[in-house]
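Aim 2 progress update. The chain analyzed this quarter is reproduced below.
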Amino acid sequence: MSLRYKSCQIIIMIIIIFSCASCKIQDTDGQKKSEALTGDYPYANSTDIFSVENDGLFSYDGNGNNKTNLRAAFAENCLLNVTDEWLYYKKEIARSEFSEKEIEAVYRIPLKKGDGGRSIIAGEDEKITDNLSGVTVAVISDDYLVYIRSAACVNFNNNLAGINSSQEKDEIFSVNIKTGEIRQCNMPAEMSMRDISSYKIIGNANNKIVWAGDSLFYLDLRKNEIAVVYKKETTGAAYNPLRDEIYYCKKARGQEIMKYDIKKGQNSVAVEKKDILLLAANCLGVSSNEIKSFSIEDNYYYCDGKIYLTIKTKPEGNYQRYILTSYSTNEHTLLYEPDLDNIKHLYSLWNEYSENMMLVGCVEGKWFFWGENGLLKYDSGTGVKMLCDTENSGNEIYAIATKKRKREGGYTVFE
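Predicted structure tokens:
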């Protein structure tokens, strides 16, 4: 496996971890949800960071210390989500040595706060659903379990069992965790629904899940409806749960930022090409005419009301340059982020200015960038910068360690 291919897998895995997170939003009854210590990944609650190590389930406090053994036997890569009340996990099965692992069942473990205020197991495991077949993706979204039944996986299993039957498209199902009701999601006629299991989840909040791939769409779990935002491929997308808006770039027009207002069901241009070009020129200290080409890279990241995105530029007579910017969804302005943009150029021996380091996450003021040679962490509170080994990247992002694979074996896109 080549280094570039392994790096691509790792990048996708990290982005998904930070994307499939519980957001700090208001419940419909006006009560604020408990905020995870880490804020931006699903394997933490208000007091603990959870990890699977050496086939055991462990938790750490908010500083990544005081490791606690919660369960001696626990399968690696099976955590789905953690709240103050529940820890959700899946059980997997490989039907043959040639097939990928499937999700056979989903369970949850009740949690409560112990004498020291940390999470402890409070009872027996509860089954949410089982006897699944052909399911390769599962995600917890508020009060729902959502899973995708892969057509390719179902057809492989049927062929393996000698069954003369086929499934043409991927299918999405939701399970109401409170009632146990299972519903197949209604698909718009204009959607092909092929290979949805390979799509990237870029938003998960407000009883909605947003997918990006060959098309851009979201699932409204309360209505059990899928709405198409853009029928074709995008070069990047991010979801703002506070305003219920999706931001993206059309692949065919990768030089402007689009906005989709879910409440209004409307698409509009958020930032025009000329404004992006002007910002890039100002950052580089050149005129707009001196920039031969520019485009917006596909690594969007949402944090605290801002969409962070990278502009790739090629000034005249110069090497390409990547500029980190942010779009304020409240102020409707595109701004240069000099502190964050300059951080990734401090290690010039291993990261040239022409190399793009992707912003992959922010955890309690700690910013993480991924490049060809590893993970860079910047603490905006202390100003400390450090390179992290992906195999020991720090408990602030223990989700990465939880999902890790040896570099030689690559990384799994989504479990």
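DSSP finds five helices and 29 strands in the chain. Residues 268 and 385 are 38 Å apart (CA to CA). These observations will guide the mutagenesis experiments scheduled for the next reporting period.
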